[in-house]
Amino acid sequence: NAGVTQTPKFQVLKTGQSMTLQCAQDMNHNSMYWYRQDPGMGLRLIYYSASEGTTDKGEVPNGYNVSRLNKREFSLRLESAAPSQTSVYFCASSTSTGGLTEAFFGQGTRLTVV
Amino acid sequence: KNQVEQSPQSLIILEGKNCTLQCNYTVSPFSNLRWYKQDTGRGPVSLTIMTFSENTKSNGRYTATLDADTKQSSLHITASQLSDSASYICVVSFSNDYKLSFGAGTTVTVRA
Question: For residues B67 and B73, is the Cβ–Cβ distance under 8 A?
Fold first, then answer.
């Protein structure tokens, strides 16, 4: 039962470097999401994809880009990393974006920008 | 200001004891409220989901209550086990929308 798989689990970047966080789900879900989790704060939505071929900004999209590569995969790219992007990033998926749909989360990527 | 406030921030309980976590929210219009459990180094896992018309929902030793009038929810853990040590997150959903508001969580430590 893989569920939602994120890679890498840990990453250290220098300021200005770029990288892509990968996320894949094997539950045939239509909707996928990227969140960041910072100490003392709730998870905040960066971007989401309601269905294959669509992406929308969430609460904190600045400094990030996303690609919904296919139904299974949703990647998050940092073009020029900043220390403020040090965080734990979670990918999630759900059958749809409506109502009582349950979200399933990956194990997270811990990113440190120095 | 966060629309979902949880208390306490952390608590320590002895194995076998009960505890109750609180969640107050200001999200409007309200669709549903969820409680998630997040183990250290892992992603959140859903415990319960309640609509505005539900007062209580149980999942094993976890029981969530909801008072939509006062915009308060609680999560009660019965007969705690060491494996209950985790962060418990209250999440509120807007009506007709999947934009979720997450609380900062309550960290529970169960000691033998």
Answer: yes
CA of B91: which chain A residue's CA is closest? Answer: A42
pLDDT the model gives residue B36: 96
* Cβ neighbours of A82 (radius 10 Å): 13
Considering only CB atoms, B43 lies closest to which of A45, A94, A107, namely: A107
Summarize pLDDT for A6-65 with one digit per residue, the tens. 999 999 999 999 999 999 999 999 999 999 999 988 999 999 998 899 999 999 999 999
- Cβ within 8 Å, pair B98-A4: no
From CA A12, how far away is CA A63, in angstroms rounded?
A: 17
Chain A and chain B share a number of CB contacts under 8 A equal to 57
For residue B90, the chain A residue with the least C-alpha distance is A42
3-state secondary structure (DSSP) of residue A18: coil
